[in-house]
Amino acid sequence: MSEKSAKVRILDAAENLFNTYGFHAVGIDRIRDISGISKVTMYKHFSSKNDLILAVLNRRDERFQQSLSHRVSEFSSLKEKLNAIVDWHFEWFKSPEFNGCMFVSADKEFGKTDSDIKAVTRLHKSRIYDFVKGILDGEGAENSALQASILFLFLEGAITEAAVMGSTNHFVNGWQCVLNSLTLPS
């Protein structure tokens, strides 16, 4: 087995376990068992559990950003792009691996005690806001910062609704209201 595949197997197992059970509830031994990697190999790639958590979060953020960006790039009008962002989230909520936002979970568990993890969780949320604002700016939308804030908060609330309530009723019904409240160029 190559070292790259060992690292990927560790990251995959850790991400799945952290997403399902949380960070504190999952120990290194469980990640080792699920990944089929020796403890020596694990520590060769990650010097501590926190290093592994940071790697998982950074990789997840990168995949999240790439996937969302790819989806939006398939559309040309501003309304289509905003709908693509919402549709992407809706599909995520319906996926079997959806357990809420892993970055919110990480911040809840470590935000007051680990500045590196806090920095990654803030960066992830900032990147989402910046992505939305960039789309609005690129299409010449007025008050793009305010409108990006509205959409960002709507998405964050939708993530919470889907995770806590197991429902997306408000999300689906609310999106049209949010879209109608935005001032979009013609």
From TrEMBL:
InterPro entries, per the entry: Homeodomain-like_sf, HTH_TetR, Tet_transcr_reg_TetR-rel_C_sf
Record feature DNA-binding region, as residue ranges: 27-46
SUPFAM superfamilies, per the entry: Homeodomain-like, Tetracyclin repressor-like, C-terminal domain
Keywords, alphabetical: DNA-binding, Transcription, Transcription regulation
UniProt key word DNA-binding: yes
Domain HTH tetR-type: 4-64
Highest rank taxon of the organism: Bacteria
Record's protein name: TetR/AcrR family transcriptional regulator
Organism: Cedecea colo
Upper classification of the organism: Bacteria, Pseudomonadati, Pseudomonadota, Gammaproteobacteria, Enterobacterales
